[in-house]
């Protein structure tokens, strides 16, 4: 199972999302081919309705504590309540560091 799939399963179990999209973006960075280190997560859940952005991120980090301590180097989080969700989240910028210029 890919790490992206594992992340999606854990977040789905914890947040029962209306929408979830987990993408490995490691290919956009200066890492070895096949790496699973950089991820983008779009998560829409009722759990986020009354929470500030930092509180939402803390909840996600708590669920993914094992992955954050190990293989995950970067995690771009886009968290929304269903009322906030407009069907799209910002795309990640291209990496310009480490020889990718």
- Largest sheet, described in full? 3 strands, mixed
Distance, first to last CA: 32 Å
Q: How many helices does DSSP assign?
A: 3
- The CATH top-level class label: Alpha Beta
Order of helices and strands: HEEHHE
Strand content: 15-25%
Taking all Cα atoms into account, the compactness measure Rg is 14 Å
Mean pLDDT: 87
What is the oligomeric state here?
Answer: single chain
Spatial strand sequence of the major β-sheet: 1-2-3
Within the CATH hierarchy, at the fold level, what is the topology?
GMP Synthetase, Chain A, domain 3
Low-confidence stretches: none
Beta strand count:
3
| Count of folded domains | 1
Structural class: alpha+beta
Q: Please identify which CATH superfamily we are dealing with.
A: BolA-like
- In CATH terms, what is the architecture? 2-Layer Sandwich
Could you characterize what this model shows?
With 101 residues, the chain is α+β, with helices and mostly antiparallel strands. It has a single domain (3-80), classed as GMP Synthetase, Chain A, domain 3 (2-Layer Sandwich). The protein has three helices and three strands. A three-stranded mixed beta sheet has the order 1-2-3. The radius of gyration is 14 Å and the shape is globular.
Task: Describe the protein's topology.
Layout: H1 3-15, E1 19-24, E2 38-44, H2 53-63, H3 65-69, E3 74-80
Parallel strand pairs: 2-3
Antiparallel strand pairs: 1-2
């Amino acid at each position: 199972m890919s790490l992206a799939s594992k992340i999606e399963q854990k977040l789905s179990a914890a947040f029962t999302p209306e929408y979830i999209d987990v993408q490995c973006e490691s290919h956009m960075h200066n890492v070895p081919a096949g790496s699973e280190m950089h991820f983008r997560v779009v998560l829409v859940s009722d759990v986020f309705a009354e929470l500030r952005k930092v509180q939402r991120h803390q909840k996600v980090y708590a669920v993914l504590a094992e992955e954050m301590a190990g293989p995950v180097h970067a995690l771009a989080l886009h968290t929304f309540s269903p009322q906030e969700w407009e069907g799209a989240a910002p795309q990640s910028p291209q990496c310009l560091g480490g020889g990718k210029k």
